[in-house]
TrEMBL record:
GO terms for cellular component: plasma membrane. Pfam families: MFS_1. The keyword Glycoprotein does not apply. It comes from Phyllobacterium sophorae. Residues 13-481 form the Major facilitator superfamily (MFS) profile domain. It is found in: Cell membrane. It is a multi-pass membrane protein. InterPro entries: MFS, MFS_dom, MFS_trans_sf, Sugar_transporter_CS. Keywords: Cell membrane, Membrane, Transmembrane, Transmembrane helix, Transport. One of its GO terms (molecular function) is transmembrane transporter activity. PANTHER family: MAJOR FACILITATOR SUPERFAMILY, VACUOLAR BASIC AMINO ACID TRANSPORTER 4. This is MFS-type drug efflux transporter P55. The chain crosses the membrane at residues 12-35, 78-97, 103-124, 136-158, 164-185, 197-216, 222-242, 263-287, 293-315, 327-347, 353-377, 398-419, 457-478.
């Protein structure tokens, strides 16, 4: 495919991508702030993590498919198609009547979201040279900063004054404007070629991940059911790897992933995604339930994370020129576990400012890990593989989010059972299944103590994952002088 976008129209394409990015970014901050209230109203706190896991599962499964499809059929139709699916699911999610329906619509949302971020980043890679790309990525990063401020504020206002359905319906005007912009200004010349999409591999992968998530989440099932889920996971996982070895167009190219740079970058991104989703899903309920603050305050602790991330992206090109890519990546990623340390010292009397500082440091470290991984991977392959290579990074992050949300959610549930000693655990679940349950925890100190102790187990999980991420970045093969002066790899 040859890109034929006129330079005068490139800014309008970027504006369209900015709108798409803002739609996804603000969705993350609004939902993270409002989900405790929504889950309390619908009931079923046990399945709290599934609201995130279902979305992330669908996103991670489809990301690599969309990346490959964009290499074959062009970026424009795949990106617009993903946005349409995302908007339909968003409209439906606002009418969810139960936890099951909400999880189902979040699953459909994830299917659409799987196209938006990787294909948008690939379009930027197509339109701009490496030295120009950092500036445009900085613009996109600023979108995350803006959404970090407006998302929690909008989420708090909506939950307090309107139907929570507007948490999802707010996507509709943004998505329609994005589609209009892409339709008018993004023009492509496509060289048709035959391709076979690895749908069977996608099926095996989905079955393996779903069985793993069910195994980790459904802790009340007997040994027989858990053993059966484990068997399904092993069999489907084995069939998935066999399929990838023989498929002419595998969902995951083993040859691509076997390259050391891509393998280590993806591993670091996966671990970072696991840690970051733990922070995103657990910190708001800690600030509300244990520290006794409002959803708005809880949202702003996450704001610091999303401020730190784009700030690191915007400063990355300067860091590369001054210190080189390797030093920037290794030193910057140290901020990831340092930020997680702040979570370990949170107590019921702590200030939310401490949580905000930890969020900012983790966000800054994640920003450097993310942008460096994308740049390194994109520059290591030719154009015809750029969509798939970029999608591999997004896939790794999404898979990490999926596993992290589920594993850390399971740790939280185990912690509640362990520290609750039966009656207190049942009382805590009863409180959390009420719309204002988190706000009522302050009235029952014993129950709040159980919640505090259980959440601290998840904070330890986040810290360990952050340490592993930092260690893995040292395995990414980058020369000492890469990125200096001309910011070239």
């Amino acid at each position: 495919m040859l890109e034929t976008v006129d330079k005068t129209k490139r800014p309008w394409v970027v504006v369209s991508i900015v709108l798409a990015t803002f739609m996804v970014a603000i969705e993350a901050t609004i939902v993270a702030t409002a989900i405790p209230h929504i889950v309390g109203q619908l009931g079923g706190f046990t399945y709290y993590s599934w609201v995130f896991s279902a979305y992330l599962l669908a996103q991670s499964t489809t990301t690599v498919i969309y990346g490959k499809l964009s290499d074959v059929f062009g970026r424009k139709p795949i990106l617009i198609g993903g946005i349409v699916i995302f908007l339909i699911a968003s409209a439906a999610a606002g009418f969810a009547w139960s936890m099951a329906s909400l999880i189902g619509f979040r699953l459909l949302q994830g299917i659409g979201a799987g196209a938006i971020q990787p294909v948008s980043m690939t379009v930027i890679g197509d339109l701009y040279k490496l030295e120009e790309r950092a500036r445009v990525q900085g613009v996109l990063a600023s979108v995350w900063a803006i959404s970090a401020v407006t998302g929690p504020l909008a989420g708090g206002i909506i939950v307090d004054n309107f139907s929570w359905g507007w948490i999802f319906w707010i996507n509709l005007p943004l998505g329609l404007l994005t589609i209009a912009g892409l339709g008018l200004f993004l023009h492509e010349s496509i060289e048709p070629r035959k391709v076979k999409i690895d749908y069977l591999g996608s099926l095996f992968f989905s079955v393996a991940i779903v069985s793993l998530l069910a195994m980790l989440t459904d802790t009340d099932s007997g040994f027989g059911i858990l053993a059966g889920l484990a068997a399904v996971f092993c069999v489907s996982g084995g069939l998935f790897f066999l399929q990838e070895r023989r498929a002419p167009q595998p969902i995951i190219s083993l040859a691509l992933w076997s390259q050391r740079l891509i393998a280590t970058s993806n591993t670091a991104t996966l671990l970072a995604g696991m840690a970051l989703i733990g922070l995103t899903t657990v910190l708001p309920i800690y600030v509300q339930g244990v520290l006794g603050r409002s959803p708005l305050v809880a949202g702003f602790t996450l704001t610091m994370l999303v401020v730190g991330w784009p700030m690191a992206v915007m400063l990355s090109s300067r860091f590369y020129r001054a210190f080189g890519i390797r030093s920037t990546l290794r030193t910057g990623s140290l901020m990831f576990p340092v930020g997680a340390v702040f979570l370990l010292f949170l107590q019921p009397e702590s200030s939310p400012i401490s949580a905000g500082i930890g969020s900012f440091l983790m966000g800054f470290g994640m920003g450097l890990i993310s942008i460096t991984s994308v740049v390194l991977v994109q520059e290591s392959v030719e154009w015809s593989m750029r969509g798939s290579a970029t999608a591999s990074i997004i896939f790794s992050r999404s898979l990490g989010n999926t596993l992290g949300a589920t594993i850390l959610g399971a740790i939280l549930n185990f912690g509640i059972v362990h520290f609750g000693n039966g009656d207190l655990a049942a009382q805590l679940h009863e409180v959390l299944n009420q719309p204002a349950g988190l706000a009522d925890l302050a009235a029952t100190p014993a129950v709040r103590t159980v919640f505090h102790s259980a959440l601290h187990w998840t904070f330890w999980g986040v810290f360990i994952l952050a340490l592993l991420t930092f260690a893995t970045t040292w395995l990414i093969p980058v020369s000492r002088d890469a990125g200096r002066k001309e910011a070239r790899i």
